Fold this protein.
Amino acid sequence: MTVAKIILAQLGGNRFIAMTGARNFVGHPAALSFKLPRGLAGNKASHVKITLDANDTYTIDFLAWNARKLEMRTISSTPGAYADDLQRVFTLETGLDTRL
């Protein structure tokens, strides 16, 4: 859970949640995943998963849920992102600002 808390803090914490409307946060042993409001992201992503890699970088996966096929598909993936790049990559991919 500590990795998930650190990732959320690097994204901006409560300000990130307020600006993006992210919800349903799930902490994994080395990752954080959450859901975005429907239709809000510019790349049509409904879920995001940020995973800490062995070389101390992050892989950011933008996913979309297809209810008809009952499957999750990957829209895009950004490997090798540093902690400083998390907010920038999120904004570039979704079009949602993480801070004012």
About this structure: The helical segments are 2-11, 14-20, 86-94. The chain is about 25% helix and 35% strand.
